[in-house]
Amino acid sequence: xxxxxxxxxxxxxxxxxxxxxxxxxxxxxxxxxxxxxxxxxxxxxxxxxxxxxxxxxxxxxxxxxxxxxxxxxxxxxxxxxxxxxxxxxxxxxxxxxxxxxxxxxxxxxxxxxxxxxxxxxxxxxxxxxxxxxxxxxxxxxxxxxxxxxxxxxxxxxxxxxxxxxxxxxxxxxxxxxxxxxxxxxxxxxxxxxxxxxxxxxxxxxxxxxxxxxxxxxxxxxxxxxxxxxxxxxxxxxxxxxxxxxxxxxxxxxxxxxxxxxxxxxxxxxxxxxxxxxxxxxxxxxxxxxxxxxxxxxxxxxxxxxxxxxxxxxxxxxxxxxxxxxxxxxxxxxxxxxx
Length: 338
Hints:
Elements: E1 4-10, H1 13-24, E2 29-38, E3 47-56, H2 70-97, H3 109-122, H4 145-152, E4 185-190, H5 194-206, E5 213-217, E6 225-226, H6 230-243, E7 247-252, H7 260-269, E8 274-280, H8 285-296, E9 303-307, E10 325-328, E11 331-332
Parallel strand pairs: 4-7, 4-8, 5-6, 5-7, 8-9, 9-10
Antiparallel strand pairs: 1-3, 2-3, 10-11
């Protein structure tokens, strides 16, 4: 008679060996073992068990159950271990052929997608544990340029939507400085010749001198090139890259700062890397605030360069602009607030 074979399933190989010996005696042999992975997605949330193939000798040759000698037991253990190792190798090979399952945090977006996929595969809703449900922050609300300038000036207390308050503006303890990278465009906007004087002092202190200064707006001066449109600005930037210095562009608004609508459009179109306003501390604060506000409606102003602090007894009035003071009468300012 041919030997009889059948399969058993269990959570561990030791438990299966004990079951085979108890039910079929010492002559029953485990001739194959396999580790089986069931369910899950990409190995995630899966479970494993073992399946063994048992061979029984023909019933006519069966003898009373006796304890086998030590050599045969050792041989049996070695054979079973070899079968298990082979099953492990087969399992590893199977998983290495498929894409590796990513490490997924329960608080990540990938985990949420995985749970949705599992729900679709099983037909039952699956929810992540409440303790690991990620808190969703409120979506940020973008500010327009006017609001951004108001925020910079410390005038905007919220974005005017319920439950979305902005944090108070924190003034930095260090004053801003002009950019100095090769090809950087630093624009200084001002009335009269004030922007030009500031640009010249910045370029001189940077060691680049007159070669780094350009004019735009209504400014015209001998020996200084104009960069009043994008093509001219690009040419000036290229020269700065070749020479290894920044470009300081003085944009003049005229004596009174009229026609601000046209100037605002041009200032925005020139797309400077950094924008300053050159302000005279001796002018009426409300007059200065009017044209500075128009500039800030077009671009983000980074800092103020203050001139003429010796011509007035109240130079601190420029602080009402809400801009950090980075330049003071031709030199870097020691503090951002007068």
